[in-house]
UniProtKB/TrEMBL annotation:
Lineage, highest ranks first: Eukaryota, Viridiplantae, Streptophyta, Embryophyta, Tracheophyta
Pfam family, one: peroxidase
GO biological process terms on file: hydrogen peroxide catabolic process; response to oxidative stress; response to stress
Function: Removal of H(2)O(2), oxidation of toxic reductants, biosynthesis and degradation of lignin, suberization, auxin catabolism, response to environmental stresses such as wounding, pathogen attack and oxidative stress. These functions might be dependent on each isozyme/isoform in each plant tissue.
Gene3D superfamilies referenced in this protein's UniProt entry, alphabetically: 1.10.520.10, Peroxidase, domain 2 (1.10.420.10)
Residues in Plant heme peroxidase family profile domain copies: 50-345
Homology family: Belongs to the peroxidase family. Ascorbate peroxidase subfamily.
Disulfide cysteine pairs (residue numbers): 60-136, 93-98, 142-341, 220-252
Cofactor binding, note field: Binds 2 calcium ions per subunit.
Name this polypeptide is given: Peroxidase
Amino acid sequence: MKSAVVSVVLLVILVAWPVSADRKDLPGAGGYGGDDEEEDTKTWFPLDNQLSLSYYDKICPNFEKIVDTKVREWTKTDPSLGPALLRLLFHDCGVTGCDASVLLDHKGSERRSPASKTLRGFELIDDIKSEIEKSCPGLVSCADILTSASRSATYQLGGPYWPNAYGRRDSTNSYARDVEKVPSGRRDITGLLETFQSYGLNILDLVVLSGAHTIGKAYCGTIQSRLYNFNATHGTDPSIDPKYADFLRRKCRWASETVYLDAVTPVVFDNQYYINLQKNMGVLTTDAELVKDPRTAPLVKAFAEQPPQMFRHQFGVSMAKLVNVGVITGEDRTGEIRRVCSKSNSKRY
Protein backbone atom coordinates (compact mmCIF):
# COMPACT_ATOMS: atom_id res chain seq x y z
CA MET A 1 0.00 0.00 0.00
CA LYS A 2 2.83 2.40 0.92
CA SER A 3 4.51 1.79 -2.45
CA ALA A 4 1.29 2.54 -4.27
CA VAL A 5 0.90 5.82 -2.41
CA VAL A 6 4.47 6.86 -3.30
CA SER A 7 3.82 6.06 -6.96
CA VAL A 8 0.64 8.13 -6.96
CA VAL A 9 2.50 11.07 -5.39
CA LEU A 10 5.20 10.81 -8.05
CA LEU A 11 2.62 10.85 -10.82
CA VAL A 12 0.94 13.91 -9.33
CA ILE A 13 4.14 15.98 -9.18
CA LEU A 14 5.34 15.25 -12.71
CA VAL A 15 5.65 18.64 -14.36
CA ALA A 16 4.72 19.75 -17.87
CA TRP A 17 7.19 20.56 -20.65
CA PRO A 18 8.62 24.07 -20.27
CA VAL A 19 8.04 25.03 -23.91
CA SER A 20 8.54 28.54 -25.24
CA ALA A 21 6.34 29.95 -27.96
CA ASP A 22 7.94 29.89 -31.39
CA ARG A 23 9.81 32.98 -32.49
CA LYS A 24 7.95 34.72 -35.31
CA ASP A 25 10.76 37.00 -36.45
CA LEU A 26 14.52 36.82 -36.53
CA PRO A 27 15.71 40.41 -36.88
CA GLY A 28 19.41 40.92 -36.47
CA ALA A 29 19.96 37.14 -36.85
CA GLY A 30 22.33 37.17 -33.92
CA GLY A 31 25.79 37.60 -35.44
CA TYR A 32 29.09 37.32 -33.61
CA GLY A 33 28.54 40.40 -31.48
CA GLY A 34 25.57 42.03 -29.78
CA ASP A 35 22.21 42.56 -31.48
CA ASP A 36 21.80 46.27 -32.19
CA GLU A 37 18.16 46.06 -33.17
CA GLU A 38 15.86 48.19 -31.04
CA GLU A 39 12.55 46.39 -31.60
CA ASP A 40 10.63 45.12 -28.62
CA THR A 41 11.89 41.54 -28.39
CA LYS A 42 9.28 40.72 -25.81
CA THR A 43 6.77 40.42 -28.66
CA TRP A 44 8.79 37.51 -30.04
CA PHE A 45 9.40 35.78 -26.72
CA PRO A 46 6.43 35.66 -24.34
CA LEU A 47 8.46 33.86 -21.67
CA ASP A 48 11.16 35.41 -19.54
CA ASN A 49 14.01 33.23 -20.77
CA GLN A 50 13.69 34.65 -24.31
CA LEU A 51 14.42 31.33 -25.99
CA SER A 52 12.51 29.82 -28.90
CA LEU A 53 11.97 26.36 -30.35
CA SER A 54 12.16 27.79 -33.87
CA TYR A 55 15.16 30.09 -33.37
CA TYR A 56 17.29 28.43 -36.08
CA ASP A 57 14.50 27.42 -38.46
CA LYS A 58 15.29 30.24 -40.89
CA ILE A 59 18.87 31.23 -40.15
CA CYS A 60 20.44 27.76 -39.76
CA PRO A 61 17.89 25.05 -40.59
CA ASN A 62 20.48 22.24 -40.62
CA PHE A 63 21.79 23.06 -37.14
CA GLU A 64 20.36 20.06 -35.28
CA LYS A 65 21.08 17.68 -38.18
CA ILE A 66 24.75 18.68 -38.15
CA VAL A 67 24.90 18.18 -34.38
CA ASP A 68 23.22 14.76 -34.53
CA THR A 69 25.50 13.56 -37.31
CA LYS A 70 28.70 14.67 -35.57
CA VAL A 71 27.67 13.20 -32.22
CA ARG A 72 26.88 9.88 -33.89
CA GLU A 73 30.23 9.86 -35.72
CA TRP A 74 32.27 10.54 -32.59
CA THR A 75 30.36 8.26 -30.23
CA LYS A 76 30.55 5.40 -32.73
CA THR A 77 34.32 5.53 -32.31
CA ASP A 78 34.22 6.30 -28.57
CA PRO A 79 30.90 5.40 -26.86
CA SER A 80 32.09 6.93 -23.59
CA LEU A 81 31.73 10.38 -25.13
CA GLY A 82 27.94 10.17 -24.77
CA PRO A 83 27.92 10.27 -20.95
CA ALA A 84 30.87 12.69 -21.10
CA LEU A 85 28.82 15.24 -23.05
CA LEU A 86 25.98 15.04 -20.55
CA ARG A 87 28.45 15.60 -17.71
CA LEU A 88 30.02 18.52 -19.59
CA LEU A 89 26.60 20.15 -19.86
CA PHE A 90 25.95 19.67 -16.13
CA HIS A 91 29.27 21.34 -15.33
CA ASP A 92 28.47 24.24 -17.62
CA CYS A 93 24.94 24.88 -16.39
CA GLY A 94 25.89 24.25 -12.76
CA VAL A 95 28.39 27.10 -12.54
CA THR A 96 27.07 30.37 -13.98
CA GLY A 97 24.28 28.93 -16.08
CA CYS A 98 24.13 27.35 -19.53
CA ASP A 99 26.45 29.85 -21.20
CA ALA A 100 29.34 27.71 -22.52
CA SER A 101 31.69 29.23 -19.94
CA VAL A 102 33.13 25.76 -19.30
CA LEU A 103 34.41 25.66 -22.90
CA LEU A 104 36.64 28.72 -22.57
CA ASP A 105 40.27 27.63 -22.31
CA HIS A 106 42.60 30.15 -20.72
CA LYS A 107 44.56 30.59 -17.52
CA GLY A 108 42.19 30.77 -14.57
CA SER A 109 39.14 29.46 -16.48
CA GLU A 110 36.66 26.84 -15.30
CA ARG A 111 38.19 24.40 -17.74
CA ARG A 112 41.61 24.80 -16.11
CA SER A 113 40.24 24.15 -12.60
CA PRO A 114 41.50 20.91 -10.97
CA ALA A 115 37.84 19.95 -10.51
CA SER A 116 37.38 20.03 -14.29
CA LYS A 117 40.38 17.91 -15.24
CA THR A 118 38.28 14.81 -15.95
CA LEU A 119 35.79 16.61 -18.21
CA ARG A 120 35.75 15.41 -21.81
CA GLY A 121 34.02 16.19 -25.10
CA PHE A 122 35.64 19.53 -25.87
CA GLU A 123 37.08 18.35 -29.20
CA LEU A 124 33.68 17.08 -30.32
CA ILE A 125 32.06 20.44 -29.57
CA ASP A 126 34.86 22.18 -31.48
CA ASP A 127 34.28 19.89 -34.46
CA ILE A 128 30.55 20.62 -34.46
CA LYS A 129 31.21 24.36 -34.24
CA SER A 130 33.67 24.20 -37.14
CA GLU A 131 31.15 22.36 -39.32
CA ILE A 132 28.31 24.74 -38.46
CA GLU A 133 30.47 27.78 -39.20
CA LYS A 134 30.77 26.54 -42.79
CA SER A 135 27.00 26.68 -43.26
CA CYS A 136 25.89 29.36 -40.81
CA PRO A 137 28.84 31.58 -39.92
CA GLY A 138 28.39 33.75 -36.87
CA LEU A 139 24.88 32.57 -36.07
CA VAL A 140 25.04 29.56 -33.73
CA SER A 141 26.33 29.90 -30.18
CA CYS A 142 28.53 27.35 -28.47
CA ALA A 143 26.01 27.26 -25.61
CA ASP A 144 23.28 26.10 -28.01
CA ILE A 145 25.66 23.56 -29.55
CA LEU A 146 26.50 22.04 -26.16
CA THR A 147 22.81 21.92 -25.24
CA SER A 148 21.89 20.20 -28.50
CA ALA A 149 24.84 17.81 -28.50
CA SER A 150 24.09 16.63 -24.96
CA ARG A 151 20.51 15.86 -25.92
CA SER A 152 21.62 14.00 -29.05
CA ALA A 153 24.08 11.92 -27.04
CA THR A 154 21.45 11.10 -24.41
CA TYR A 155 18.89 10.12 -27.02
CA GLN A 156 21.37 7.98 -28.91
CA LEU A 157 22.07 6.12 -25.65
CA GLY A 158 18.39 5.27 -25.30
CA GLY A 159 17.43 8.26 -23.18
CA PRO A 160 14.56 10.68 -23.78
CA TYR A 161 14.25 13.38 -26.41
CA TRP A 162 13.19 16.73 -24.97
CA PRO A 163 12.34 20.01 -26.72
CA ASN A 164 15.28 22.39 -26.79
CA ALA A 165 14.55 26.07 -27.12
CA TYR A 166 17.48 28.04 -28.57
CA GLY A 167 18.84 31.56 -28.70
CA ARG A 168 21.52 31.37 -25.98
CA ARG A 169 24.61 33.48 -26.27
CA ASP A 170 28.06 32.65 -24.99
CA SER A 171 29.63 34.07 -21.88
CA THR A 172 32.78 36.14 -22.29
CA ASN A 173 34.02 35.20 -18.80
CA SER A 174 35.07 32.00 -17.08
CA TYR A 175 36.62 31.71 -13.61
CA ALA A 176 38.04 28.59 -11.99
CA ARG A 177 36.78 29.64 -8.58
CA ASP A 178 33.19 29.34 -9.79
CA VAL A 179 33.58 25.58 -10.30
CA GLU A 180 33.02 25.18 -6.56
CA LYS A 181 29.33 25.77 -7.32
CA VAL A 182 29.05 22.47 -9.21
CA PRO A 183 27.41 19.80 -7.03
CA SER A 184 30.05 17.40 -5.76
CA GLY A 185 29.75 13.65 -5.47
CA ARG A 186 30.64 14.10 -1.80
CA ARG A 187 27.95 16.65 -0.89
CA ASP A 188 25.06 15.87 1.44
CA ILE A 189 21.45 16.09 0.30
CA THR A 190 20.79 19.40 2.03
CA GLY A 191 23.73 21.01 0.24
CA LEU A 192 22.68 19.52 -3.08
CA LEU A 193 19.09 20.63 -2.64
CA GLU A 194 20.14 24.18 -1.80
CA THR A 195 22.22 24.26 -4.97
CA PHE A 196 19.38 22.91 -7.10
CA GLN A 197 16.92 25.38 -5.60
CA SER A 198 19.28 28.21 -6.48
CA TYR A 199 18.88 27.06 -10.11
CA GLY A 200 15.10 27.12 -9.82
CA LEU A 201 14.97 23.31 -9.68
CA ASN A 202 13.28 21.19 -7.00
CA ILE A 203 13.80 17.96 -5.10
CA LEU A 204 12.24 15.89 -7.86
CA ASP A 205 14.71 17.37 -10.35
CA LEU A 206 17.56 16.50 -7.97
CA VAL A 207 16.56 12.84 -7.79
CA VAL A 208 15.79 12.59 -11.50
CA LEU A 209 18.95 14.28 -12.77
CA SER A 210 21.02 12.14 -10.41
CA GLY A 211 19.65 9.31 -12.53
CA ALA A 212 22.12 10.36 -15.24
CA HIS A 213 24.39 8.00 -13.28
CA THR A 214 22.59 5.16 -15.03
CA ILE A 215 25.29 5.63 -17.68
CA GLY A 216 28.93 6.62 -17.52
CA LYS A 217 31.83 6.07 -15.16
CA ALA A 218 33.41 7.64 -12.08
CA TYR A 219 37.10 7.98 -11.37
CA CYS A 220 38.12 5.82 -8.45
CA GLY A 221 39.81 8.80 -6.82
CA THR A 222 36.36 10.20 -6.04
CA ILE A 223 35.30 7.15 -4.02
CA GLN A 224 38.49 5.79 -2.48
CA SER A 225 37.75 7.45 0.85
CA ARG A 226 34.49 5.45 1.01
CA LEU A 227 36.38 2.24 0.33
CA TYR A 228 39.60 2.52 2.31
CA ASN A 229 39.27 5.24 4.95
CA PHE A 230 35.62 5.99 5.61
CA ASN A 231 35.33 8.74 8.22
CA ALA A 232 39.03 8.24 9.04
CA THR A 233 38.40 4.67 10.22
CA HIS A 234 40.68 2.98 7.66
CA GLY A 235 37.65 0.88 6.80
CA THR A 236 34.85 0.81 4.22
CA ASP A 237 31.56 2.70 4.34
CA PRO A 238 29.26 0.15 6.02
CA SER A 239 26.29 1.37 3.98
CA ILE A 240 27.73 -0.22 0.82
CA ASP A 241 26.58 -3.76 0.12
CA PRO A 242 29.51 -5.97 1.30
CA LYS A 243 29.89 -7.91 -1.95
CA TYR A 244 29.72 -4.73 -4.00
CA ALA A 245 32.21 -3.03 -1.67
CA ASP A 246 34.63 -5.91 -2.21
CA PHE A 247 34.22 -5.53 -5.98
CA LEU A 248 34.86 -1.79 -5.78
CA ARG A 249 37.96 -2.22 -3.64
CA ARG A 250 39.43 -4.61 -6.18
CA LYS A 251 38.59 -2.22 -9.05
CA CYS A 252 39.76 0.95 -7.35
CA ARG A 253 43.26 0.31 -6.11
CA TRP A 254 44.43 3.27 -8.20
CA ALA A 255 42.77 6.69 -8.24
CA SER A 256 43.13 6.92 -12.03
CA GLU A 257 41.04 3.80 -12.62
CA THR A 258 37.34 4.08 -13.43
CA VAL A 259 34.23 2.19 -12.38
CA TYR A 260 30.76 2.15 -13.90
CA LEU A 261 28.19 4.19 -11.98
CA ASP A 262 25.64 1.49 -12.76
CA ALA A 263 27.22 -1.93 -12.33
CA VAL A 264 24.26 -3.84 -13.77
CA THR A 265 23.30 -2.09 -17.03
CA PRO A 266 26.12 0.45 -17.45
CA VAL A 267 25.44 1.39 -21.09
CA VAL A 268 21.63 1.34 -21.00
CA PHE A 269 19.61 4.43 -20.14
CA ASP A 270 17.11 2.86 -17.74
CA ASN A 271 16.00 3.00 -14.09
CA GLN A 272 18.50 0.37 -12.90
CA TYR A 273 20.39 3.12 -11.06
CA TYR A 274 17.48 3.46 -8.62
CA ILE A 275 17.18 -0.29 -8.22
CA ASN A 276 20.89 -0.37 -7.38
CA LEU A 277 20.42 2.33 -4.74
CA GLN A 278 17.72 0.23 -3.09
CA LYS A 279 20.32 -2.54 -2.86
CA ASN A 280 23.00 -0.24 -1.37
CA MET A 281 24.99 -0.26 -4.59
CA GLY A 282 25.41 3.47 -5.06
CA VAL A 283 28.93 4.45 -6.14
CA LEU A 284 29.16 8.08 -5.03
CA THR A 285 28.39 9.43 -1.58
CA THR A 286 25.56 11.48 -3.05
CA ASP A 287 24.08 8.34 -4.60
CA ALA A 288 24.02 6.61 -1.24
CA GLU A 289 22.56 9.68 0.47
CA LEU A 290 19.58 9.74 -1.89
CA VAL A 291 18.29 6.45 -0.52
CA LYS A 292 19.00 7.40 3.11
CA ASP A 293 17.45 10.86 3.24
CA PRO A 294 13.70 10.80 4.04
CA ARG A 295 13.09 13.62 1.56
CA THR A 296 14.51 11.73 -1.41
CA ALA A 297 14.17 8.06 -0.48
CA PRO A 298 10.45 7.81 -1.46
CA LEU A 299 11.24 9.15 -4.94
CA VAL A 300 14.13 6.70 -5.34
CA LYS A 301 11.79 3.88 -4.35
CA ALA A 302 9.11 5.01 -6.79
CA PHE A 303 11.50 5.22 -9.74
CA ALA A 304 12.96 1.82 -8.85
CA GLU A 305 9.52 0.18 -8.80
CA GLN A 306 7.91 1.89 -11.79
CA PRO A 307 8.59 1.05 -15.47
CA PRO A 308 11.74 2.72 -16.84
CA GLN A 309 9.59 4.82 -19.17
CA MET A 310 8.52 6.94 -16.19
CA PHE A 311 12.10 7.80 -15.34
CA ARG A 312 12.94 8.55 -18.98
CA HIS A 313 9.96 10.87 -19.31
CA GLN A 314 10.73 12.78 -16.14
CA PHE A 315 14.42 12.99 -17.00
CA GLY A 316 13.47 14.78 -20.20
CA VAL A 317 11.24 17.17 -18.26
CA SER A 318 13.97 17.99 -15.76
CA MET A 319 16.60 18.40 -18.48
CA ALA A 320 14.36 20.85 -20.35
CA LYS A 321 14.33 22.89 -17.14
CA LEU A 322 18.06 22.60 -16.48
CA VAL A 323 19.16 23.84 -19.91
CA ASN A 324 17.27 27.09 -19.31
CA VAL A 325 19.23 27.94 -16.16
CA GLY A 326 21.12 31.25 -16.28
CA VAL A 327 21.04 31.64 -20.05
CA ILE A 328 22.30 34.77 -21.81
CA THR A 329 20.12 35.98 -24.67
CA GLY A 330 20.23 38.73 -27.26
CA GLU A 331 18.05 40.90 -25.08
CA ASP A 332 20.69 40.79 -22.31
CA ARG A 333 23.29 42.18 -24.73
CA THR A 334 26.08 40.89 -22.48
CA GLY A 335 27.07 37.77 -24.40
CA GLU A 336 28.46 36.93 -27.79
CA ILE A 337 28.47 34.19 -30.39
CA ARG A 338 32.02 32.87 -30.33
CA ARG A 339 33.89 32.15 -33.50
CA VAL A 340 35.78 29.40 -31.68
CA CYS A 341 34.23 27.78 -28.63
CA SER A 342 37.40 27.83 -26.56
CA LYS A 343 38.09 31.55 -27.07
CA SER A 344 36.16 34.74 -26.46
CA ASN A 345 35.84 37.09 -29.42
CA SER A 346 36.06 40.18 -27.28
CA LYS A 347 38.75 39.34 -24.71
CA ARG A 348 42.40 38.38 -24.71
CA TYR A 349 43.79 36.46 -21.78
